[in-house]
Structures
1.
Amino acid sequence: MDFFNYKNGRLHAEGVALETIADEVGTPFYVYSTATLTRHFNVFADALRGMNALVCYAVKANSNQAVIRTLAALGAGADVVSGGELARALKAGIKPHKIVFSGVGKTEAEITAALNAGIKQLNVESEPELERISAIAQRLGLIAAVALRVNPDVDAGTHEKITTGRKENKFGIEWTRAHEVYKKAAALPGIKAQGLAIHIGSQLLDLQPFREAFVRAGDLVAMLRADGLSIETLDLGGGLGIPYGDEGETDAPNPESYAQVVRETVGNLGLELILEPGRMITGNSGLLVTRTEYVKEGATKTFLIVDAGMNDLIRPTLYNAFHNIIPVIEPEKGQEPVNVDIVGPICETGDTFAKNRKLAPVQAGDLLAVRTAGAYGAVQASTYNTRPLVAEVMVNGDHFAIVRERVEVEDIIALDRLPDWLAD
């Protein structure tokens, strides 16, 4: 459920007409709904009732300060994967004791920043990283709370570029060596080995891979405890999928069903459970609004050429992802849909949002809304073709505010520096 609906024939974000925002902000722009963010976080958190669980929002899904601050006010923690995301989470008001730091390539500077901030734990992904954390903690005179990220060798059944739990993926400690490495962590100076972490992938539409991974994690907990090792936390990662509107898509499981799997597999272990939803919270909370520049009748098909490009939303190009696309002005009843390709202005054939899509007739100047664009949209945007970074807007009831200004061409060029031999 989201709060983007037609009212009097015009698509609204909560109480604000998207045309109103377009007139003030220009296009393309992202728009986020406070009501949708709030509802989705609360539905997920409520599903975990009765368990000792900390919900750490995966900042990589959407790192806008307004989004993080909204979730922080609801009690969310944060899962971060870079020093930049750590800084964003802290600045947005996430308490350090609710932050976990994941990722395979943490630098010395990032580890130092995390330890100085006093975050809840570092999720360790390799032995060299573990040894680096130990050395840095000793130098700082601090104790680093760590969880060992284990690769359970479970196929998530999702897109190959977003699966993370198979043995051939780069993430985590190999399942068969987890026991040995955890014992090593517990013995290292400057280290407090306090838990395990797993994350098998993103956009999972089947709960069975979760169940398999959680059972494996529970078995490992039992083995470690039998060896006299202490475990306080179990980070189950994220990955719960959402519907994107593709006709061939399996229905996404609801948070209650997901939480039931958690209860049945690891809910009785006496551990603090950490969960890292990202897409499930923000995906349906955002739209990308774009304006049609041209309607081009090609030799074999009709193209709608819009002012948004793959630099603004790369998911269709990168993952062959489906996004439902609808007109901002509600089509009249009885209008016969036409078959179109919706494409952007980038000089790449891959700059395509939709192929052979049935859509009510669209004219140049008409606004289109790309749905379910609140996750992995603006955060993956670039300035390819020297195109301004897209503006971001947040709506709360009848009010809206720009939460990230459009980065204009002059600002992009100003980042360049000429060497002495080319200067005037």
Note: The chain has two domains: 4-31+283-413, 103-275.
2.
Amino acid sequence: MRALAAEGRTVFLSSHLMSETSQTADQLLVIGRGRIIAAGPVQQVIDSVAGGAVGVRSPRTGELAAALAADGATVTSPEAGMLEASGTTAEHVGEVAFRNGLLLHELSPRRASLEEAYLSLTQDAVEYRAHTTPTTSRTEKAQNQ
């Protein structure tokens, strides 16, 4: 496909495989219920929905969380000693930590995947949803016989 595009041809691809799409497409057009939901370069579409986050590991997460929140970031703590900050960059988190004399053990930018962005974009455009129904396991069936 890339070879065809390199020849100046336009290649349209419709796929539900987001990992492959993110590796082969330059531009995306996301359609839901007959309407264009998003269009643009792959990374721009991802960033417009999911943005990014910064993973931070520090022995002083409480102080760092307060400093980042005061600076406008949204901070969550997925596990002890770990923070996830959104609405900011890794560089800015490092600067805030430095200004406050806080030690960092890890500072890693995290980008959302195309799959995450796609699911977020289309969550209100889904016509059919899977409904789970109660099932009986083999063990329960054997016990009831």
Note: The chain has a mean pLDDT of 84.
3.
Amino acid sequence: MEFIALIAALMSVNALAIDIMLPALPHMGEALNIINENDRQFVLSAYLLGFGFTQIIYGPLSDRFGRRPPLLIGLIIYIIAAIAAIFSPNFTTLLILRVVQGMGAAGTRVIAQSIVRDRFSGRAMAEVMSLVFMVFMIIPVIAPAMGQILLFTGSWWTIFIFMGVTALIVATWTFYRLPETLDEENRRPLSPKAIIGGFKLVLTNRVSVAYSATTMFLFGALFGFINSSQQIYVDIYGLGVWFPAAFALMAGIMALSAYLNSRVVKHFGMRRISHLALIIFTSVSALWWMISMFGPIPLWLFFTLLSTAMFMFGWTSSNMNSLAMEPLGKVAGTASAVFGFFQTIGGAAIGLIIGQLFDGTTTPIAAGYFFLGLAALTAVLIAEKGKLFGVGEEYESD
């Protein structure tokens, strides 16, 4: 269980840098003279930009030098950037430091997933990733509330101190308790030929690329909601200081989804569960979009529709990530980096577009969920050659 908790903690460093910021966005906008409310979303997008692009570097490094050294270096970069952000004289400087902070966090995403793939495969990997995701979801549950508490006791920069200290604790835990999982004989040389060969292995695998694209589309929907969540809950529904509670409840639903997935995935398989969940996700999003076009949606109905969609998200993300990684165990670091790059950059770009379309209603978010669900379903059909609910090829045993 310590292994699962530690991997979840590593991934949570990234989630913390996003979710704890949400209550502080209006305060940062006021302190740094941000006129357009939608521009506050760049605090999230800048971080995701650094997080996404740098993953492509950590993969080959972790396949060559092992998992621990680049992971610890990334955590150090994250800590330094978080503390430096306290002294930002303007919004531009803050955004630059958020990019650097994301660059440090990129190692946690790439290498944590590679470590799991080093030790597990198939449905066992999906089960472990579901449990990791369940523990990981504790952060979105408590982070907005923690951000709100920090704002009660100090200015917005206290949040960056908290992020730096938390990352230091995780780095210390990693240094003392996480062993190296990549054996010497499985390490790849850090040469142009080896790197290009690794990328070729990843990018020419139809199943892996298609499932990675599916996850990218779904992350785009999630990022679109996160970008607009403060405006939706506070500006539309007037929740005020209760916004973190609503966000926490949503994260709790996703954690429950991940836990249930870990219990049933061995019995029904990754494909059957994730394909069904994706169809439900898309159908519920279509219903939400249609209802939103007839006028304002009451809070209870909005939350019911969103909760159903995000419960299904919990059944797709860990399974489809595992399906993408499963055929590529020999280049797990590079595969995790490539997929993380496309999923984060693509998802962040899509989410930014959806967030910038916020017009005081939930219609843009609902439409985004529906069309991205359709795009994800198309990618799955490409991966599975037009067939759903199968058990796959040689990668998944029954």
Note: The domain at 2-178+195-383 is CATH 1.20.1250.20 (Growth Hormone; Chain: A;).
